[in-house]
Specification:
10 helices; 246 residues; single chain; seven-stranded mixed beta sheet; Rossmann fold; alpha/beta
Length: 246
């Protein structure tokens, strides 16, 4: 992504419906499937928004966040507890082997042409029996200016990420769409953006009316609760996959 976007994201991540609900989903999946995990690595931690939520969720022995861009690490350092380790690293070359019992990449691998190199690296870094949680944008037909601005390489087809994780040495534990209940709104937004110049619609998605943001937050929180109870969604703007290192 463009390093210039880190400052913009740092201003909206704490309250924007998409980031708030996604954090709750990630923490809920960690608690449900890997309650004993104590050593966590996040690839592409950006400003540290997810890592901050992870740090607050339980007592960890070790927390590590990696990011390619030093701009993101600078923001992350200001918002994270001192014990969190931050490293500048290319996700395609993770210099760790069986060092963590839980790893994650949250809307990261879609930015990288060789996404399977990242997944193989995550597998090496994860001890056998440990876990990984990955989130990605879903459905190629949803491609829009927002994907161009974010420098995405792809939006994933249903089953694509799961197949790549299996080839990388993981077993799939749980998989579902995310942002399912707001998919119609997302489709309308993407279609309308095609008829507007520049990045106007992309900017608008990050500067929502507070009432609209509150409504969307409530909707996605309801979706998250249903997902954590075991419900899976056939379609949605994103995909979340929980995997175990074989």
């Amino acid at each position: 992504m463009d390093p210039k976007n880190f400052e913009m994201l740092s201003k909206v991540e704490a309250e924007h419906f998409w980031f708030v609900a996604r954090n709750e989903l990630i923490i809920g999946l960690m608690d449900k499937f890997f309650p004993g995990a104590r050593r966590f690595l996040e690839i592409g931690c950006g400003n540290g928004a997810v890592l901050r939520a992870v740090a607050r969720s339980r007592n960890w022995e070790r927390l590590v966040g990696s990011e390619l861009h030093p701009t993101g690490l600078a923001f992350a350092k200001r918002r994270l507890p001192a014990q969190v380790e931050l490293v500048q690293m290319d996700a395609r070359n993770i210099p760790a082997e069986s060092a963590f019992d839980l790893t994650g990449a949250f809307d990261v691998v879609e930015h990288i042409a060789d996404d399977e190199a990242v997944l193989r690296g995550l597998r090496r870094a994860t001890q056998s029996g440990g876990g990984a949680i990955i989130t990605v944008p879903q459905h190629p037909w949803l491609w829009s200016r927002a994907d161009d601005v974010a420098y995405h390489q792809r939006r994933y087809r249903r089953g694509e990420l799961e197949a790549k994780l299996r080839r990388s040495g993981f077993e799939i534990v749980f998989s579902t769409s995310y942002t399912a209940l707001l998919l119609p709104v997302m489709v309308v937004s993407r279609l309308s953006a095609k008829h507007k110049p520049g990045n106007e619609e992309v900017v608008r998605e990050f500067n929502l009316n507070p009432w609209v943001n509150s409504i969307f937050t409530a909707i996605l929180r309801a979706e998250v609760r249903a997902t954590l109870s075991g419900l899976t969604w056939p379609a949605g703007g994103s995909r979340v996959v929980v995997a175990r290192a074989a």
